[in-house]
Amino acid sequence: MNDRDLARATAAGIMGTSTMTFFSYLASSAVGDNFREPVLLDGLIRGTLLPARSRIARPAGWALHYAMGCSLANLFHYSWKRSHTKPTLLRALLYGGCSGLAAIAWWHTAFRLHPNPPHVRMPFYIQLVAAHLIYSMSVARVCSASVQSSIKTRRHEKK
Q1: Which positions, given as ranges, span the membrane (predicted)?
Q2: d(Cα 136, Cα 67) in Å, to the nearest integer?
Q3: Which of 26, 74, 77, 144 has the highest CB neighbour number within 10 Å of its CB?
Q4: What proportion of the chain, given as a percentage, has pLDDT over 70?
Q5: What CA–CA distance (Å, rounded) separates 104 from 128?
């Protein structure tokens, strides 16, 4: 992946993570549960990886959330370019569904391993899949031009 692709995929990750987080905050307010991933990450790292009264736990939660979003967007972008497929709505939803299921497994494991996990209920996991569908559609939209350009270039080189 060249520098331009890395920048495009990282921008897609920032956009997708921002869109997903906005949705999670709205859903959290609407339902009255805590679906705010950066805040939940803060709770997981506070008292385990960082001291309980750490001032950097909240920013660290946000940084981890965006780092994961950018990493996943780079993986999506690489996958679309490598397979020479356009990031269509259907593919975005497939990637979002898979990443949502992986997120459920990750969060469930993190909560089970944590000595004092935050209390979450089933709606958190349902919202998590919906948030990843929204994330993946945002990432696909931002990556679309870059991936399609790569596909056109490859077809032109074959002629």
Answers
A1: 92-110, 122-144
A2: 15
A3: 77
A4: 93
A5: 7
Q: CA-CA distance, 71 to 10, in Å (whole number)?
A: 8
- Backbone φ and ψ for 36, nearest 5 degrees, come out as -80, 100
DSSP string, 87-111: --HHHHHHHHHHHHHHHHHHHHHHH
Distance between CA 139 and CA 61 in Å, rounded?
A: 21
- Alpha-carbon distance of 38 to 25, in angstroms, equals 10
Amino acid sitting at position 5: D
Report which DSSP code applies to 53. Answer: T
* Residue 49: φ, ψ to 5°: -85, -25
SS (H, E, C) 9-33: HHHHHHHHHHHHHHHHHHHHHHHCC
> φ and ψ at 148, to 5 degrees?
-65, -35
88 φψ region: left (φ > 0), alpha (ψ -120 to 50), beta (else): beta
Question: Model confidence at 151, in pLDDT bands (50, 70, 90)?
Answer: low
pLDDT tens, position by position, 27-82? 999 999 999 999 999 999 998 999 999 999 999 999 999 999 999 999 999 999 99
